[in-house]
What does this fold into?
Amino acid sequence: MSGPLNYPDVLRSLYVTTVLLVRHGLTAATGHVLTGWTPGVGLDDRGRAQARALGARLVPVTLAAVVTSPLDRCRQTVGELIAARNGNVARVEPVLDERVGECRYGDWTGKTLKELEQDPLWPVVQAHPSAVRFPGEAGETMLDMQHRAVSAIRDWNARLGKDATYLVCSHGDVIKAIVADALGLHLDQCQRIVADPCSLTVIRYTPLRPFLLRLNDTGGGVADLLPRPAQTAAGVASPEQHESDAVIGGGTGAAVPADGPAMGTTSADALVGAGVAGPEATSEAIQEAIQGTDATYGAGG
It folds into this structure.
């Protein structure tokens, strides 16, 4: 009979990886048409600029792999992002993975969102997406989409191993489903999550639980994504303490230089880690955030 499990040894043998989830940049159809798996839907000038800007922001982050949906808008986003990094870091060739491709919307594909809002299935998609199968032979369930996408993330975590950071370029609903899984939420709660075009969402997978480090980030620095230097000062976690433990009280977030926020950030960016809203969060921005209670399903892909 084997002895009792040595849990510290078990934990140390598992993987701790960080995935950067990037939604593709803007297309001409974004927010108007549910493009789904329609081929030939590429980035417009706004989307290409978004991808280049994100690529420049991520230059300090070493990427073990770049994984992308096979759809044009994601492949082009990754192309612009990698081009913006070239000359600064070693080039990483993107790998296609259909499991992080868009949800298969079946007969909804190609229809305008205005038209879909009148479909009897729309309120079900909003309130109970886990029960939905999109119409038509090619239609997929949201649960099946979540299962394949989360399985892809877990497979890549295992393949790349401990301490790897990698990027996955995917789609709004797919990213929302992955985040819901990471937070332990039922899929029916995924409509509370937002993934804007070319936004950055970061999840760190540890042996006990995932940590959501960033959600729908469209600006700011990346200091908190860099490897943490080894520290032995009093009060700092020792190797025996688990990386899966939550920081009670919320932690300090990314370090801010004594003379102000790091280059590329604003004072508001520095406050976000502490959960403090800056004075910029005034009535106009708040009104934009709260208008309407329906999620823009797929947000145009």
About this structure: The first strand starts at residue 17 and ends at 23.
